[in-house]
Design a protein that fits this description.
Order of helices and strands: HHHHHH
Number of strands: 0
Number of helices: 6
Oligomer: single chain
Shape: rod-shaped
Length: 162
């Protein structure tokens, strides 16, 4: 009789252990699916953010004019400077957000590079803006801008828009 109770207890313990292991596998699968859903949603949000910035240039005549003047290297009016300052603030905050997403593993570096690099950083005015506004950003992001964005103005000059 003792042997049958011992066997029953062992079988019961083994079944409980298998149940726990099955639950852990289920949780791992759920976490993986949730992670993929978060990545997908993040990529969609980043793409929308990029489109919104592009559309700002398409829809905002003041921004288009400020870019045109800055691209030609002509002096900007105070209003044109304000327009570009607001644009660069928005663009850089979006890029800083993407930078943070790379740090936590939501975005990969190549996606960040594709979405963050653009003609705006090649404007000579960007270097002036950054000299004034850079300190308002986190130090690690400041280093990224110095390494990745500021050299764009030196390496690839823009063709003036007409």
């Amino acid at each position: 009789m003792d042997d049958s109770k011992t066997i029953a207890r062992r079988l019961s313990g083994a079944a409980a252990a298998l149940g726990v292991m099955g639950s852990l596998v289920f949780v791992a699968i759920e976490v993986q699916q949730n992670t993929e859903a978060v990545r997908g949603a993040t990529l969609q949000a980043v793409a929308q953010q990029s489109m919104d910035l592009v559309m700002a240039g398409v829809e905002n005549a003041d921004l288009r004019e400020a870019f045109s003047v800055a691209t030609r290297g002509e002096p900007l009016s105070p209003e044109q400077e304000r327009v570009l300052n607001w644009f660069f603030q928005a663009k850089l905050r979006a890029d800083e957000n993407r930078f943070r997403q790379v740090q936590i593993g939501i975005l990969d570096e190549s996606t960040f590079g594709q979405l963050s690099s653009n003609a705006a950083y090649r404007l000579p005015y960007f270097a002036e803006f950054w000299a004034r506004s850079g300190p308002t950003f986190a130090e690690d992001f400041q280093r990224l801008v110095a390494r990745e964005f500021l050299p764009l103005g030196e390496a690839r000059p823009l063709v003036p828009m007409r």
